[in-house]
Amino acid sequence: MAASLSAEHTAVGFIGIGVMGKSMARNLMKKGYPVHVYSRTKAKAEDLVTEGAVWHASPAEVARQANAIITMVGYPRDVEEVYLGADGIVAAARPGSYLIDMTTSSPTLARRIYEEAGRRGLHALDAPVSGGDVGAREARLSIMVGGDREAFDAALPVFEAMGTNIVYQGVAGAGQHTKMCNQIAIASNMMGVCEALAYAEQAGLDPATVLRSIETGAAGSWSLSNLGPRMIAGNFEPGFYVKHFIKDMGIALESAEEMGLDTHGLRLAKSLYERLAAGGEENSGTQALYKMYKRD
Description:
By secondary structure, the chain is α/β, with parallel strands linked by helices. It contains 14 helices and 9 strands. It has helices at residues 19-30, 46-50, 59-65, 76-84, 89-92, 107-119, 132-137, 149-160, 174-202, 207-214, 222-233, 242-258, 264-281, 289-295; strands at residues 12-15, 35-38, 54-55, 68-71, 98-101, 123-126, 129-130, 141-146, 163-170. Helix 1 (19-30) links the parallel strand 1 (12-15) and strand 2. Helix 9 (174-202) crosses helix 11, helix 9 crosses helix 13 (264-281) and helix 9 (174-202) runs parallel beside helix 14 (289-295). The longest helix is centred in the middle third of the chain and has 29 residues, at 174-202. The N and C termini lie far apart (58 Å). The model has no long low-confidence stretch (mean pLDDT 95).
């Protein structure tokens, strides 16, 4: 059995200090893990460095200092560059290290990274998350993991520092496929949440009062309870960017088409979000979809 990645025996590398990555790295530090960080924009990591993280100038430098390297970057092309580039993590990491991609990315790319890592004696896991900025901040993320079971068991203490619902889904790529299921469910649900609140307002009801009634019944969902209040308050700050949701839906559509599955709700949601982004909202939070219903 592989040794557990406990705080006493593990140096964590964290690449990608964005809205969620910063909170996830901070929670690892709170659990006693030494954390080495890299982000394309150094300023995003400055407060973590003040709190004790160690800054490095490249992903490869981080990989050389850590035996558990976590990535939380933007797009599949970023994941591919960070892992498989000439000066990437796979080339730089020490044999026996654990590579954990928590970006929402392509299942096919996850399997490529797993295979390349295996050839160098590295353990690769795909472990995307759900729970948004609030879940990341409060270490209550849902983490869905693909890869070898033994590697998952060894990495469990690292996951437990960041989340509460941690489920092994199967072979490499299974974590990303599970995240696609998550995003497909959210895509149609977000349209329903927006339509329900717009309907309430149009009917002369108080949307906040309506929310109190419907969020605990059969209509209840994370999006309704967490993003509904932000819509009502006119708060469209990003917990999860519109542009990243469009990316996720694109991956899901591509995977579904490869399997011969038609996803009507997902296709419609993606088209609405693309219209929203074209109108200048790509850097808003996903709850900004509500604006389209208000406009229309």
